Amino acid sequence: MRARSPGIRRARTAAPAALVLALTLTCTGCYRGAGDTGNDGSDTINVLMVNNPQMVDLQRLTARHFTARTGIKVHFTLLPEDDLRDKMSQDFSSQAGQYDVASLSNYETPIYARNGWLTPLGERAAKDPEFDQQDILAPVRSSLTAADGKVYAEPFYGESSFLMYRKDVLAAAGLTMPAHPTWRQVAALAAKLDGAEKGMKGICLRGQPGWGQLAAPLTTVVNTFGGTWFDKDWKPRVDSPEFTRATRFYVDLIREHGEAGAPQAGYTECLNDMQQGKVAMWYDATAGAGSLESDGSKVAGKIGYAPAPVEKTKSSGWLYTWAWGVQKASRHQDAAWKFVSWASGKGYERLVGKELGWSRTPGGKRASLYRDPEYREESGAFAAATEEAIRTARPDDPGVQPRPAPGIQFVGIPEFSDLGTKASQEISAAIAGKQSVAAALAESRRLAQEVSDAYTDR
What we know:
Elements: H1 17-24, E1 44-50, H2 53-70, E2 73-79, H3 81-93, E3 101-105, H4 108-114, H5 122-127, H6 138-143, E4 154-159, E5 161-166, H7 167-172, H8 183-193, H9 215-224, H10 241-257, H11 267-275, E6 281-285, H12 288-292, E7 303-307, E8 320-326, H13 333-343, H14 346-355, H15 373-379, H16 383-391, H17 416-431, H18 437-455
Parallel strand pairs: 1-2, 1-3
Antiparallel strand pairs: 3-8, 4-8, 5-6, 5-7
Helix pairs in contact: 1-3, 9-10, 10-17, 17-18
């Protein structure tokens, strides 16, 4: 995701409230151990990362493979996504140096880079003969490049979104998934697949509040229905006819043919429902395919993969990456880079494939992985669909009209984390039947106006 274009109007406020608060935090009693030296004389770095399965695998493999080779010890702190972002924002904004490396996304990277919190990594990558920066898929590489043209993070894995569906269930019902489905076609299939097997619902879609939960898939639907959060002049469009139609479609689809407990269902809940045969289709992150096809999965070999459904656009899949950023205040930049190079490298992908299985490889970032015959043999069901989804993602032009900031499933500004979360709470309440879509969007429009006021001249 690139930073805002030169024509964008800067906010009158220097930073959102959450970041201002983080900047004013004192560091009395803060841990200053980043880059300490271990008892055996080896470097020690501290890494803060999200507690998803791929990161847990990394933690398990680090001592035997990275530390044994380099002598660099790694102390990991694993946290849920929201907790991770809170701690990372506090530490990096104050440049406290508690963590040398943190897992951050293509949402945070340009923002953190603009604030001077990250070390540029491009020069180190260019001098590292094993890293091969050009092997990283162009959309992912671009999304981690800031307005100054420098790369500030290296990807651990990348993802887009697509539609996952039970091939066997559709076949038994005499139904066919279109090669490039529209959302209207998906809704029609969901209606016919309700009850196809005992207790099965037609589709699973995120309903759990959060800018990275419900707001992510919903925004891709909004984009392809012709809507946008803001027009090019920062005018809120949350209650526009297009945004309203998309939101009403999404809410109705979940309420009529979606999973049980939808207002509390996010990525993990939908993944579990798909694995357990409770839903026939699931629109979500391409990263979910590895779990569906992994050893022990009850649905392995039964899943088909179709592009993200569209209406008015040619494509609608999102672009996201968990990546590694090095804090500018880190006192062990060399050791931090060695870890980043290893964790983002080709060798680590092969290591996971050999030791844990290719379906657990943190893919979606390197072109070479999709040419690897062993990976394609084990992950052939979803490898090509994943690569195509990432290559066709359009973060600078995701809809039918110009945007004031980049981003597909988010708006690339600091304020969106708060706006997206609060608006999604309103829409989740509509999914729960507690209020109408119109009421949810009216409140969301008010919230969006507050953001707009910071980016426009009064």
